[in-house]
Amino acid sequence: MHSLIQALVLGVLTAGVYALMASGQSLIFGIMKVVNLAQGAMVILGAYLAYQLFTSFGIDPFLAIPITTVVMFALGVAVEVCFLRQLKREDRSELSLLVTFAVALLIEGVMSVMWKTNYRSVSTSYANASWTVFGYQITLVRLWGFLLSLVALGLLYLLLNRTRFGRAVRATVQNPDAARLLGVEAQRVSALGFGLGSATAAAAGSVYGLLYPFNSGSHYDLISLLLSIVLLGGLGSVVGAVIGAVIVSVSSAVVASTLSPSWSGMTYFVIILLILLLRPRGLFGTATRGAI
Fold first, then answer.
1. Residue at 7 is within a domain
2. Under 8 Å CB-to-CB from 133, ≥6 apart: which residues?
3. Model confidence at 289, in pLDDT bands (50, 70, 90)?
4. Full residue range of the structural domain in which residue 64 is found
5. How many domains are contained in the chain?
6. pLDDT at residue 292, rounded to an integer
7. pLDDT in tens, 226-276
8. HEC states along the chain?
9. For all residues of the chain together, what is the average pLDDT?
């Protein structure tokens, strides 16, 4: 029982970072109807940027997040403008899956050239620090990562629900044609939305680099993770991504604790198959709108 509860604690704390990754993925799909297969590569690039800032300038990965998010926001806008916008103009959106995967391969190639392919990790003075609460171990990095994710998700919620840009995003998600009739600039919303999704990947990547060793190919492991979360929560639903992240993270931690860590990765594929069979729209997906 003790190991099971410890696994639940681990799963909940890790879910914050997973939710931050997946919320950007769902946001992008909600706005553009694009499954962004480059999201995992952007997470790893964010981890590399935080790693470089730490090793070269001594900037703590948590403090580096404002820098990495700005860089990745600009990259996301550039990807939308240079690659995805042309597809939409030519009504070839069905190719977006291939294009975003090509972007992921391009990012992987750049990372391999700049940082080689050997595994890196960010080793801070508090990397191994932990607290014991009622007999259960809580690592400081996971706790801070969880709290940071809550703050970031809270800011994302306020942005989407309390700002003019957020209203434009929600209008575009719910009814793109009506939004255009009301004067919403769809191209601008798409570019900023893709940039925002990439920025969340950077924030998650800064924490990811503190939790796990990574290299330029680590984004392949994240593809199945992110797909299982967004499919479970419902494509286009940020709220669904958060809830899906909790379910996937806790399930994976429990499987690793009760069976074997090698089985935890299979959890993602099982969830994907079950959702596609039982509820293809996910928990919060609908036919007419995305629940931002």
1. no
2. none
3. very low
4. 20-216
5. 1
6. 56
7. 988 998 998 888 899 999 999 999 999 988 888 877 787 788 888 888 888
8. CHHHHHHHHHHHHHHHHHHHHHHHHHHHHHHHCCCCCCHHHHHHHHHHHHHHHHHHHCCCCCCCHHHHHHHHHHHHHHHHHHHHHHHHHCCCHHHHHHHHHHHHHHHHHHHHHHHCCCCECCCCCCCCCEEEECCEEEEHHHHHHHHHHHHHHHHHHHHHHHCHHHHHHHHHHHCHHHHHHCCCCHHHHHHHHHHHHHHHHHHHHHHHHHHCCECCCCHHHHHHHHHHHHHHHCCCCHHHHHHHHHHHHHHHHHHHHHCCHHHHHHHHHHHHHHHHHHCCCCCCCCCCCCCC
9. 89
| Whole-number Å distance between alpha carbons of 61 and 43 | 14
Task: Let me know if residue 91 belongs to a domain.
Answer: yes
- Has residue 71 been placed in a domain? yes
Measured CA to CA, the distance from residue 176 to residue 182 in angstroms comes to: 10
Q: What φ, ψ does residue 6 adopt, rounded to 5°?
A: -60, -40
User: Do 67 and 53 form a contact (C-beta atoms < 8 A)?
Assistant: yes
**pTM, full prediction:** 0.91
Q: Tell me: the pLDDT tens digits for 61-94?
A: 999 999 999 999 999 999 999 999 888 777 776 7
Q: What is the pLDDT of residue 207?
A: 94
Write the pLDDT tens digit of every residue in 9-55: 999 999 999 999 999 999 999 888 889 999 999 999 999 999 999 99
Q: According to the 3-state scheme, what is the secondary structure of 186-227?
A: HHHHHHHHHHHHHHHHHHHHHHHHHHCCECCCCHHHHHHHHH
Does 145 fall in a domain?
yes
- Better-scored residue on pLDDT, 281 or 63: 63
